[in-house]
Amino acid sequence: EAGVTQSPTHLIKTRGQQATLRCSPISGHTSVYWYQQALGLGLQFLLWYDEGEERNRGNFPPRFSGRQFPNYSSELNVNALELEDSALYLCASSLDGDLGGGELFFGEGSRLTVL
Amino acid sequence: AQKVTQAQTEISVVEKEDVTLDCVYETRDTTYYLFWYKQPPSGELVFLIRRNSFDEQNEISGRYSWNFQKSTSSFNFTITASQVVDSAVYFCALSGETSGSRLTFGEGTQLTVNP
User: Fold this and answer.
1) In whole angstroms, what is the distance from residue A90 CA to residue A83 CA?
2) Strand, coil or helix: B86
3) Residues A83 and A112: beta-carbon distance below 8 Å
4) Per DSSP, which regions of B1-115 are E strands?
5) Is B1 exposed, middle or buried (0-12, 13-18, 19+ CB in 10 A)?
6) How many whole angstroms separate alpha carbon B93 and alpha carbon B108?
7) What's the pLDDT band for B78 if we cut at 50, 70, 90?
8) What is the per-residue pLDDT across B54-72, written as a single tens digit (0 to 9) for each?
């Protein structure tokens, strides 16, 4: 069974540009989560999608947005890139996001570098 | 609000030493779940264990053991006879009845096991 897959693995952009990151959850999983891991910082919760809807978002500005497609894959968009957006972006999926205690399965991440 | 604190930023040990990683949490949920994840250099988070708030039984899995104490809001992780392959960043995380499967992570502890 394929795990959570993310693309691209690495992405280099310049300030002011837009970045799009993609995530395919494990088959059968309906919830997708996005986390940002900046250098020296822990994992900061960005967004949670379930059944195509945004269920929750972390403390990030509106230029961080995303969506979930009918096949449950997800896209994270970061507009007007800033240097501090450089980070590893991790996607995770779970079987049922409303189920407390559900295990999150993580992808290997997309490393975004903003120059 | 939920919070997880891992006070140890970095730990360095010599192979075969025992090492304990500390985790303290805060939550107002009555039902909650605690996790430990391992992040090797590849970046993907690997699930290690999940405990729910009603199960304070300590758990041992090979060289790994976990000590859950509600009285001190702690969920510590011990590696016995550490090995070089244990070198990684370890994250403690929390989810609860008010957050579904969304995880709140601690800052992580970088463990380095030297030969």
Assistant:
1) 18
2) helix
3) no
4) 3-5, 10-14, 19-21, 24-26, 32-39, 46-52, 59-61, 64-69, 74-79, 88-96, 104-105, 109-114
5) exposed
6) 9
7) very high
8) 888 888 889 999 999 999 9
Asked if B99 contacts A100 with a C-beta cutoff of 8 angstroms, the reply is yes
3-state SS, residue B72: helix
> How close A99 comes to chain B (CA, Å)?
5
Contact at 8 Å (CB) between A14 and A80? no
> Which tokens hold the place of A4?
């959570």
Which member of B31, B97, B103 has the closest CB to residue A104?
B103
> What gap in Å lies between CA A79 and CA A73, rounded to an integer?
20
DSSP secondary structure string for all residues of A64-100: EEEEE-TTS-EEEEE-S--GGG-EEEEEEEES-TTST
Instruction: Look at the block and give the residue holding tokens 């392959």.
Output: B85
B83 three-class SS: coil
In the structure, what pLDDT confidence band is assigned to residue A100 with cuts at 50, 70 and 90?
low
pLDDT at A98: 67
pLDDT tens track for A19-73: 999 999 999 999 999 999 998 778 999 999 999 999 989 999 999 999 999 999 9
Of A42, A99, A111, the CB nearest to B101: A99
Q: Tokens standing for B92?
A: 């403690």
Chain center to CA of A12: 17
Query: Would an 8 Å CB–CB cutoff place A35 in contact with chain B?
Result: yes
User: Cβ of B101 and A101 within 8 Å?
Assistant: yes
